[in-house]
Amino acid sequence: MNRLGLLGAVLLACWQTGAAVRCSARQYEYKGRCCDRCQPGEKLVSECDGTEESVCTRCESGHYQQSWTKERHCAPHDICEDNAGLMVKTEGNATHNTVCQCRAGMHCSDASCQTCLENLPCQRGFGFVAAKAMARMSSPCEPCAEGTFSNISSKTEPCHPWTSCEEKGLAVKVKGTNTSDVICAESGGRSSLSVLIPIAAAVVTCLVGICIYCLVHTAPRRQVQKQIEAGNMENVEQKQAVEMGDDILLGQETLLRHQPVAQEDGKESRIAEQERL
Ligand SMILES: *[C@@H]1O[C@H](CO)[C@@H](O)[C@H](O)[C@H]1NC(C)=O
Ligand SMILES: *[C@@H]1O[C@H](CO)[C@@H](O)[C@H](O)[C@H]1NC(C)=O
Ligand SMILES: *[C@@H]1O[C@H](CO)[C@@H](O)[C@H](O)[C@H]1NC(C)=O
């Protein structure tokens, strides 16, 4: 009996102290009753009692109340301090606070954004990021990522991608950094090849030239000799002349050449005879 009485007392206590459990999310417990909370945009004027419901009233101008509340005061809108570089982004109303932002060309000094800082030019190695400038939350300058560079201090210039030497069919002469562009080799790392190829070509041309010269200047002599040899087969005297030497050979050759002409023209014959002598 005693135990049961104790349990009953505990349960009763729980039921009484845990009275809030009965009240809905949009109510609150007051003196053992559930009173309605005030809706967003309103504040409490008086709690409910046995007969009356909660009394709420609209937030005064320049104030807001965002949630279901039992508060008797609405919070004042934030003021966007011009001196701090702030301006209104969204005007406040009874349910929402005013939202401030930094003026164009400025950004928040910290996460709370109570004050703004002037955007400084993005230094070499840093580029201007338009989206960050639009947000005005932090500096619009970001370090140039690998493969991009900025070689000037500027309030508007983004990081630019390195020149692609490959696209131009050139070799890389100097690697790019975050502050300098890639430098491509002047019309190629071919430079060594572009020297070697003409030299090789010149050498080959010379060799071919020499060969052709040799062929051209040796072939006719052989031909002459062949012709003479062929003639000697018919003429024993000429064969002897060939054996006697070049001087006589030449004379003999001239004689042979002029013989048909000599038959028609006496002068020619005489010249031929003079030549022979
Ligand atoms: C109050 O402002 C908020 C945010 O700007 C907006 O969504 C809401 O519709 C406004 N309420 C009224 C009643 O104008
Ligand atoms: C640029 O590169 C240098 C060397 O690689 C590095 O020390 C420096 O921190 C980089 N600067 C930026 C802005 O990333
Ligand atoms: C920056 O880099 C560009 C492209 O390589 C070049 O034309 C320009 O002269 C450089 N400017 C400075 C200040 O170094």
Would you give an account of this structure?
By secondary structure, the chain is α+β, with helices and mostly antiparallel strands. Among the domains are: 27-76, Tumor Necrosis Factor Receptor, subunit A, domain 2; 119-188, Tumor Necrosis Factor Receptor, subunit A, domain 2 (Ribbon), CATH 2.10.50.10; 204-250. It contains six helices and 16 strands. It has helices spanning 2-17, 130-135, 191-234, 236-244, 246-264, 266-276; strands at residues 27-30, 33-36, 42-46, 55-58, 63-64, 75-76, 86-90, 99-102, 106-108, 116-118, 126-128, 141-143, 148-149, 160-161, 172-174, 183-184. The strands form eight sheets. A two-stranded antiparallel sheet has the order 1-2. A two-stranded antiparallel sheet has the order 3-4. The chain has a two-stranded antiparallel sheet with strand order 5-6. β1 (27-30) and β2 form a beta hairpin. The longest helix is centred in the C-terminal third of the chain and has 44 residues, at 191-234. The chain is rod-shaped, with a radius of gyration of 56 Å. It starts with a helix and ends with a helix. The model is unreliable at 6-15, 238-243, 245-256 and 259-275 (pLDDT under 50). One 2-acetamido-2-deoxy-beta-D-glucopyranose binds at residues 90, 93, 95-96.
Secondary structure: elements and pairs:
Blueprint: H1 2-17, E1 27-30, E2 33-36, E3 42-46, E4 55-58, E5 63-64, E6 75-76, E7 86-90, E8 99-102, E9 106-108, E10 116-118, E11 126-128, H2 130-135, E12 141-143, E13 148-149, E14 160-161, E15 172-174, E16 183-184, H3 191-234, H4 236-244, H5 246-264, H6 266-276
Antiparallel strand pairs: 1-2, 3-4, 5-6, 7-8, 9-10, 11-12, 13-14, 15-16
Helix pairs in contact: 3-4, 4-5, 5-6
One 2-acetamido-2-deoxy-beta-D-glucopyranose binds next to loops.
